[in-house]
C-alpha cells in the first residue's frame, strides 16, 4: 500500500504537469512539495469512534494530535487562470498514529485533491491566499470523499522560489469518513516564463512583451533608431535628439517641430516657435504691424492719440479734443467756465409763478448747451431757488419744477441725462436780502453747478 500511495502521488504530478498551462502572467507554473500533518482532534466530530474536541480546540497541539511523516509527503501542481485564481491538483500521503487522544496502529493515509486557489495580494513578497476544493481520501484502505477549504501564505525569496505554509479542513461526506485538518509546509517553485514577441527577453522581464525590442531598452523597440525607446520617444518614427525627447527641430530654435507653429523659421518658445520682429509679444504671423510694437488688443499695432493729449483714443472719452489724463482725455471745467454757466443760468426767465421758460431765454439756454457739450464726461446739477414770498411749500414745489424744466430742456437738446440731476431748494438758500425787491429778484434764480468727483 505504501508503494501504491507513492505511485499515486507521482502519477498525479505527471497528470497535472501535462494538462495545466499557466500560474501567473510571468511564471505560468507552480509546483510545491513538502511535509503535511494530519490532525483529527479539533473537528467537533461527535459521531467519531475516537474522542474529538470542539472546532479548533488544541489546534496547535503538535505533540499529542499531529500525525507527521518525516519526509516529503505532498506534491502539488497548479495553473493560473487569471485575476488571481489558480486551479490545480495535489497528492499527499501520511501515517496515522494518533486519532485524537487515542493511539492508532499506523494507519495509512493518502489523498488526491483538486484545488481552486485565490491569491489575495499580487506581486508581493508575502502573498496570502484562500483555497477550496474537493477530493478523495483513503485511511487504511477505506476511501471517502471530502470537501476542502483552507488558507495559507507564500513567502517568495525570488521571482521563482518561495516557502508556502497552509492549513485546511477536510469534511468527510460518508459517516465512516475521517474528518480532519491537514497542515502543509513546503517549497514552491514557479517557472515556465514565455517570450510572446520572440525578442529573446522573457515576458516577465520584458517591458514591451508584445512588441519585439532591444535588450538595452528592456525589450522595448526604437523604431527610428535615435537611441530613444519608442515608449519615451515623443516622435517614435522620426529621429531626433534626447533634449527634445526624440523629436526633430528643423529650424534649430530648440522647439520640436511637432510643437513649433513655425517649424521652418527660428522663433521663441513663448510664441510656439514663431518669430517676433518688433518684440511686442505677438508672433509676426498674427501681428498686423510686425515691425511696429503694439498691444494684442489692437492686433499688434500701437494705439493712436488723435488729439495728442497723451490719452490713447481707446481710453479717451474726448478723442478729438485735447484734455487731461485725470479727466479721461476730456478738458476740465475751469472756474471761469463754472462762473460763465452760473451767469447764464441766472438770466433764465420763467413765467410768473410758473415753471415754463420764457422764449427770450432760448439763446441763453443754447449757450449753456454748447458749453456742456465741450465737457462730455462732466456732470452737473441744476439747482432751483425762490424768494420768501408765499408759503414755503409752494416755493419748494416751484423751485423743483423750474430746475426740472431747465434740465429737461438741456436733455432735449442733446445733453446726456446721465450727466444731469435737478434739485429744488425753495427759499432755504437765499444769496440776498428778501426784505428788498432787488434781493428777492436775486434770490429767484437757477444755478448750474459742476458735480466734482468724489475721491
TrEMBL record:
Signal peptide extent: 1-22
Superkingdom of the organism of origin: Bacteria
Residues annotated as domain OmpA-like: 337-454
Keyword Lipid metabolism (UniProt): no
GO BP annotations, alphabetical order: cell adhesion; monoatomic ion transport
Residue numbers spanned by region Disordered: 227-259, 283-304
Pfam family, one: TSP_3
GO cellular component entries: cell outer membrane; pore complex
Keywords: Cell outer membrane, Ion transport, Membrane, Porin, Signal, Transmembrane, Transmembrane beta strand, Transport
Places the protein is found: Cell outer membrane
Chief location category: membrane
Molecular function GO labels: calcium ion binding; porin activity
InterPro entries tied to this protein: Bact_OuterMem_StrucFunc, EF_Hand_1_Ca_BS, OMP/PagP_B-barrel, OMP_bac, OmpA-like, OmpA-like_sf, Thrombospondin_3-like_rpt, TSP_type-3_rpt
Membrane topology per record: Multi-pass membrane protein
Designated name of the protein: OmpA family protein
Organism of origin: Muriicola jejuensis
